[in-house]
């Protein structure tokens, strides 16, 4: 399990457990808001992760991202939050090497959509785990003002930041989030378009980079693309599956059903692909579960991990320390490392089964999950406690 590889309060995300050392590169195709910004996690040619520790990927994306996160999490004390967050995570790294050459082979594609107030870096734990098992994962950064921040590039070559849009008095949250969701769906579909272009070659990265995009040509297996996401990204995943049948399966981590509450009756029948929903216990209020029950029960698998909170499915628990976890709603009864192991092993086993793959590690993962079956509920289950103190409306549906 992860704790064999990871010291609890080290300032890096857990080390991925698959056979590949993970590489990371940021890719921007199109400088305007209609372009695509993604962080690509991929199997690399590096053989020893620890020997490359000085080249591990910086997790922190900059002050603009911290300010946006402060607006989302701590609007009453944004300056104090920003100072503490920068102090805690400014030197944090993801256990993946920055811009090494891609490993030989052809790798299945996963497009990943982040949650509200998040960014392309904050799901490094999930994305790098997938990449270590032979997947190329494109973590989108959404430009609908639901990310803590993002940016475009102006004619002078300068970054122009898109900041998180907080809910203002008089604004109905459903209307804001539903309108953002429509943008997100377009961005997710466009990301797959970009990956298809990258697989053909001849694509320019609009960010400074030593990572040669031509090495992706012919290396991306686009026969069975996978759409995945967490929270708001989970709702994004459901909508994209309904609209774009190029995606052959979906993984929704704790999907936030609020932005699609009006559309779920017409949306659900359109989702015909295999779908896995891995839920955390504390996030699942009855209203959210009732909306998920409308999904196709013949093609949807529901799993709930007991003793978990919403933030167990992103990087937060590993980087902010014990006090920070309480403040950020990331303190869970179940050890975060074990929650991470269970979540990732369920996800990878499911994807490999759907792809018709049976790697040797699956046997080990199945044995691990059998040993911890008391922590997993097959189906929908929840306590409805939201996010332990800073729920901005996640359970209103």
TrEMBL record:
GO BP annotations, alphabetical order: lipid catabolic process
Active site: 231, 254, 310
EC number, UniProt record: 3.1.1.47
Enzyme class: hydrolase
Keyword match Hydrolase: yes
A Pfam short name: PAF-AH_p_II
Record's catalysed reaction(s): a 1-O-alkyl-2-acetyl-sn-glycero-3-phosphocholine + H2O = a 1-O-alkyl-sn-glycero-3-phosphocholine + acetate + H(+)
SUPFAM superfamilies recorded: alpha/beta-Hydrolases (SSF53474)
GO MF: 1-alkyl-2-acetylglycerophosphocholine esterase activity
Keywords: Hydrolase, Lipid degradation, Lipid metabolism
Source domain of life: Eukaryota
PANTHER family: PLATELET-ACTIVATING FACTOR ACETYLHYDROLASE (PTHR10272)
Annotated protein name in UniProt: 1-alkyl-2-acetylglycerophosphocholine esterase
Organism ancestry: Eukaryota, Metazoa, Ecdysozoa, Arthropoda, Crustacea
């Amino acid at each position: 399990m992860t704790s064999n590889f990871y010291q609890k309060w080290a300032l890096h995300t857990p080390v991925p457990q698959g056979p590949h050392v993970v590489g990371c590169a940021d890719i921007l195709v199109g400088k305007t808001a209609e372009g695509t910004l993604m962080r690509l996690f991929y199997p690399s040619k590096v053989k020893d992760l620890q020997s490359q520790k000085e080249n591990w990927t910086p997790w922190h994306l900059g002050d603009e991202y911290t300010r946006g996160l402060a607006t989302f999490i701590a609007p009453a004390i944004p300056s104090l939050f920003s100072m503490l967050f920068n102090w805690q995570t400014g030197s944090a790294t993801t256990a993946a090497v920055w811009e090494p050459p891609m490993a030989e082979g052809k790798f299945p594609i996963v497009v990943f959509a982040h949650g509200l107030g998040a960014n392309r870096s904050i799901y490094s734990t999930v994305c790098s785990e997938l990449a270590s098992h032979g997947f190329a994962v494109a973590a989108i950064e959404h430009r609908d003002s639901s990310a803590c921040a993002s940016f475009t590039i102006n004619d002078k070559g300068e970054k122009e930041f898109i900041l998180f849009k907080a809910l203002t008095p008089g604004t109905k949250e459903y209307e804001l989030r539903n309108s953002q969701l429509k943008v997100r769906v377009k961005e997710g579909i466009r990301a797959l378009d970009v990956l298809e272009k990258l697989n053909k070659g001849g694509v320019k990265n609009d960010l400074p980079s030593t990572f040669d995009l031509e090495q992706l040509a012919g290396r991306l297996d686009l026969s069975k693309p996978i759409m995945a996401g967490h929270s708001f990204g989970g709702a994004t995943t459901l909508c994209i599956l309904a609209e774009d049948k190029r995606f052959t399966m979906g993984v929704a981590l704790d999907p936030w059903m609020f932005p699609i509450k009006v559309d779920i009756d017409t949306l659900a029948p359109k989702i015909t692909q295999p779908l896995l929903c891995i839920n955390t216990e504390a996030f699942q209020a009855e209203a959210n579960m009732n909306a998920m029950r409308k999904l196709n029960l013949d093609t949807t698998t529901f799993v709930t991990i007991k003793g978990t909170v919403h933030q167990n499915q992103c990087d937060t628990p590993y980087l902010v320390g014990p006090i920070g976890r309480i403040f950020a709603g990331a303190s869970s009864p179940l050890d975060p490392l074990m929650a991470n192991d269970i979540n990732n092993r369920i996800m990878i086993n499911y994807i490999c089964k759907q792809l018709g793959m049976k790697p040797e590690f699956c046997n080990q993962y199945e044995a691990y999950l059998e040993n911890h079956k008391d922590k997993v509920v097959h189906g929908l289950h929840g306590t409805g406690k939201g996010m332990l103190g800073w729920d901005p409306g996640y359970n209103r549906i």
